[in-house]
Amino acid sequence: MFDINTLLRKNIKNLTPYSSARDEFQGEASVFLDANENAFGSPLPTAYNRYPDPMQHAIKLRLKEIKGLPVRNIFVGNGSDEAIDILFRSFCNPGVDNVIIVPPTYGMYQVSANINDVETKKVVLTEEYQLDLNGIAEAIDEHTKLIFICSPNNPTGNSINREDVETLLANFKGIVVVDEAYINFSRQKSFIQELTEYANLVVMQTLSKAWGLAGLRVGMAFASEEIIEVMNRVKPPYNVNEASQQLALQALQNVGQVNDWIKETLAQRDKLVLTLKDMPFVLDIYPSDANFILVKTTDATGIYNYLVDKGIIVRNRTNVELCEGCLRITVGTPGENTTLIETLQQYK
Ligand SMILES: Cc1ncc(COP(=O)(O)O)c(C=O)c1O
């Protein structure tokens, strides 16, 4: 059975979090002389002289409506990258514990592990870019705290088989993190619905992709109340700044606009695939549930350098395991995609 107390680092179990001025006072007041702010204002058209809400209540109330989850199950971070780091800092003892990652996958799991001095056990995906469940079962030991699954997966674009993730959730005594950064583009449904079923599930999402707010740095983690409580204790007090909170809240009213862009992105993705697949240097295009495609080519580095020369930047993934010869191409606007295609048509 899942028991958070056996997973938590001892120093975190005993941690008294920083208590900010605004944490200590709740209620009505008109004079705030408690946080050493500049009471006059900001040298800007908008005033940012007050510290932001440490718990981002307004955003969480809106997320509650959109995601159908109680506020106590929602963590908001400075990008989902912050949530990844906080999971390491909460659960993994440096130099002792380990996590499982399943390459090729999102690079920050490894970087965060390195920063936190936590070993990663790598269980490479199958040729179909699916989980090697036997490999994962063999890799798990008494010090394995987290398993990171990215679905839809970056950089391959495919969704991970749902039953395989459920097998892990049902059998692993640590935490299974399902990173759904690209879920808005996917045909698969989110794992958020499974939170009531699995106490060891953390679902991560972000406003950086479909929501078009990468510059604001707002990410979310959804999990049991006890996991969210730990993450809130470990996070820096004011981890999401006031401008980001206000703008994210405003953007979260605009679901219609985002849904239109998702539809357009998917239509553009299909068009891009149809055109690219007939190009002489394209060997394969992998099925995508995301806003990018992984394209296997005869010469990834040659094409990459050619495109850079023309002012077009894609991601060269040829040095990544199971991605030899591959470029990862983000779906752009119709104009950008046309420029890409016309430029590639000139490639010799
Ligand atoms: C799978 C995945 N997770 C998380 C992130 C980072 O998200 P955020 O911008 O919220 O930190 C990315 C960004 O590329 C990503 O591809």
Automatic annotation (TrEMBL):
Its cofactor is pyridoxal 5'-phosphate. The keyword NAD does not apply. Keywords: Amino-acid biosynthesis, Aminotransferase, Histidine biosynthesis, Pyridoxal phosphate, Transferase. The keyword Transferase applies. One of its GO terms (molecular function) is histidinol-phosphate transaminase activity. It catalyses: L-histidinol phosphate + 2-oxoglutarate = 3-(imidazol-4-yl)-2-oxopropyl phosphate + L-glutamate. Residues 49-344 form the Aminotransferase class I/classII large domain. It is an enzyme of class 2 (transferase). One of its GO terms (biological process) is L-histidine biosynthetic process. It holds the Pfam family Aminotran_1_2. Its EC number is 2.6.1.9. The modification N6-(pyridoxal phosphate)lysine is found at K209. Belongs to the class-II pyridoxal-phosphate-dependent aminotransferase family. Histidinol-phosphate aminotransferase subfamily. Homodimer. HAMAP family: HisC_aminotrans_2. PANTHER family: HISTIDINOL-PHOSPHATE AMINOTRANSFERASE, HISTIDINOL-PHOSPHATE AMINOTRANSFERASE-RELATED. This is Histidinol-phosphate aminotransferase. It comes from Mucilaginibacter pedocola.
